[in-house]
Amino acid sequence: MEYSTDNGSSWSIITPSTFNDGTYPWTIPDTPSNECLVRVSDTDGDPKDTSDSVFSIGGNCLDIGNLRLCADSITPSGNVYTLTGNVNINGKLWFSGKVTYTKGSSTTGTLLSVGYPYVKLSNGNQPIFTATNIKYNVNGNARTMNPISLNSASYALSLTGIPLGVTSDPITITNDGVLIGGDIVIGSGNLKLCSVDVDVLLRPGDKVYLQDAHLSADIPSTIPGIKTTSIELHYDGAQDELTGSAVLDFPFLAVTGIEASISVQPGCIDGFRISVALKKSIPLGSTPLSINGLTLEVDNICDPPKFYIFFGGDLGITGIPSEVFVLDDM
């Protein structure tokens, strides 16, 4: 059994061996730190396990719901607390300077950071914002810090004369690290060309991981006779999957539009779907039914046992608009 006071950079022995009876009495050492871990392993080194997150020994901390705000020194004055030296939240989000926390309730309050917040990654400290003196609304139950000054309004920037709006999502302290995100919109009003929504996870001691990203755009096609009405791209970090779709209009064909989408996994195109909407429905024999559109879908290419091909269409009733009645993907 071992313990660390520097988030696992070095380890000290608690005991070289003990019976595997489920408990062990440990006299806590006089080593104040907010970055403590415990590691238990078999005497031959395997199996072993380490604390899920850091804890404090002899440190000074404030509990805010599911968040713990710690520092080397905390000076209270009524409901206002001044924190200095190694200021951090849950041992995951750190601050480069003094922090003042004003308590609103047992789970909420406001935090003013003189320095900037950062995460300790494997390749060095990564600032969340380079700006200083930022004020945050803290919600301990939701584990969020909402940067008030950054969220009060979108920043009106300029990109070669095109408006560029940027908004920031709240910072979320998760069990895995620090989740941040935001939106970027190019254009405004009827002239909005593109929007990007991104979430990234910063894992302490590790690196930055893209969790989720979504891009949507309305870009006219440069190909004669084809009009691009929309493009969508989405990345799902949990599934490590990229999906995308485009809606195309072919004015010279007897179709109202063609919609195509593709699903991509690492090293493999997993599937695709093409749907054609017809300008004029096709009668289905002598029945009152008619074909309003056609669909081709191929799925699970990356997983051959589940691979399948679907071909079908949308069936309607002759003389009745598809907005009133339609059978999709028959």
| Helical fraction | under 10%
Per DSSP E runs of 2 or more residues, the count of β-strands stands at: 29
Low-confidence stretches: 151-160
Q: N-to-C SSE series?
A: EEEEEEEEEEEEEEEEEHEEEEEEEEEEEE
Tag the structure with descriptive keywords.
single chain; 330 residues; mainly beta; 18-stranded antiparallel sheet; 6-stranded antiparallel sheet; 29 strands
Report what the structure shows:
This protein has 330 residues and is an all-beta fold. The protein has one helix and 29 strands. The strands form three sheets. The chain has an 18-stranded antiparallel beta sheet that branches. The N and C termini lie far apart (63 Å).
Write the layout of secondary structure elements.
Elements: E1 2-4, E2 12-13, E3 33-41, E4 48-50, E5 55-57, E6 60-64, E7 67-71, E8 73-77, E9 80-84, E10 88-89, E11 93-95, E12 99-103, E13 108-113, E14 117-121, E15 124-127, E16 134-139, E17 144-147, H1 148-151, E18 155-159, E19 162-168, E20 171-173, E21 178-186, E22 194-202, E23 208-217, E24 227-236, E25 241-249, E26 255-265, E27 268-283, E28 289-299, E29 308-317
Antiparallel strand pairs: 1-2, 1-3, 3-4, 3-5, 6-7, 7-10, 8-9, 9-12, 10-11, 11-14, 12-13, 13-16, 14-15, 16-17, 17-20, 18-19, 19-21, 20-21, 21-22, 22-23, 23-24, 24-25, 25-26, 26-27, 27-28, 28-29
Summarize the structure.
By secondary structure, the protein is an all-beta fold. 1% of the residues lie in helices and 56% in strands.
